[in-house]
Write a structure and sequence with these properties.
110 residues; alpha+beta; D-tyrosyl-trna(Tyr) Deacylase, Chain: A; four-stranded antiparallel sheet; 39% strand
């Protein structure tokens, strides 16, 4: 899992020209789930070939939203797998990148 967290004065997400979610002052979290570690191509565009399959990613995303909602209210979110337009006003600069890389047997024995 990789999450980019930004402190914002406001943020919204639109799908098909309609606002799906919006917040005032708070945290905007962009989260992604991978089957393995993500890579960058020479063009610096993210490669999605290591992304978790859609249904597994959807399950992980919904579990993530539920866990955050238990600890922090209110929680708003976009539409999974939709082409979303994200708009935000940063309140910072405050940006935090969190990454939880899956471990394998070889890594734990090194």
């Amino acid at each position: 899992m990789r999450a980019v967290i930004q402190r914002v004065r406001r943020a919204s997400v639109s799908v098909d020209g309609r606002e799906a979610a919006a917040i005032g002052t708070g945290l905007l979290v962009l989260v992604g789930f991978a089957a393995g570690e993500s890579e960058l191509l020479e063009s610096h565009r993210p490669s999605f070939h290591t992304s978790a399959p859609p249904e597994a990613a959807r399950t992980l995303f919904l579990a993530f939203v539920r866990e955050v909602a238990v600890r922090h209210q209110p929680v708003s979110h976009g539409v999974f797998q939709a082409d979303m337009l994200v708009s935000l006003d940063n309140d910072g600069p405050v940006t935090v990148i969190l990454e939880d890389r899956p471990t394998n047997e070889a890594d734990s024995n090194a």
